Amino acid sequence: MSKKVENIGNTFTSSENKKKQKQKMRRRVIRRRITLFGGILLAIIIILCIMLVTQKQSNNDDAVERQQKEEKYQKQQDEELALKEQLNNLNDKSYIEKVARDDYYLSNDGEVIFKLPSDKSDAGSKSSKEDK
C-alpha cells in the first residue's frame, strides 16, 4: 500500500516533513534530557536514602553506647556512695573497735575472748559474704 501513495515534491510538503522531523528530534532531545535528569535525580535519592539508613544505624549504636555508659556511671556513683559511707565508718572509732573485735578477735586490757566452734563457721561465712 505504501507504494501506491507517493509524496508530492512541492515546497509545502517538504517544509511539513522538515517540521515533523524537527519535532521528532526535539522529542528525542527532550526525552534524553528527561531521562538524564531523572537518572541524576534517582541517583541523588538513592544516595540520600543510603545516608539516611547509615545515619539511623549510627544513631542507634550511639544510643546503645550512651545507655551503657549511663549504667556504668550510675554504678560508679553507687560505688562512690558506698566508699564514702565506708570512709565515714572508718573514721568512727566505735565502728573500728567493733570490726577489730569481730574480725580480728582483739580485746581491751583485761578482757578474755573465747572462741567457740560455731564462731569459726560464722567467721568463714562472714568473709565469704564480704568478698562478694
UniProtKB/TrEMBL annotation:
Q: What is a biological process (GO) this protein takes part in? A: cell division
Q: Indicate whether Ribosomal protein appears among the record's keywords.
A: no
Query: Highest taxon of the source?
Result: Bacteria
Instruction: Please state the span of the N-terminal signal peptide per the UniProt entry.
Output: none
- What segments bear the compositional bias annotation Basic and acidic residues? 63-78
| Keywords, sorted A to Z | Membrane, Transmembrane, Transmembrane helix
Give me the ranges of the annotated region Disordered: 1-25, 59-78
Question: Cross-referenced InterPro entries, in alphabetical order?
Answer: DivIC, FtsL/DivIC
In terms of Pfam families, this protein maps to:
DivIC
Q: Which residues cross the membrane?
A: 34-53
What is this protein called in UniProt?
A: Putative cell-division initiation protein
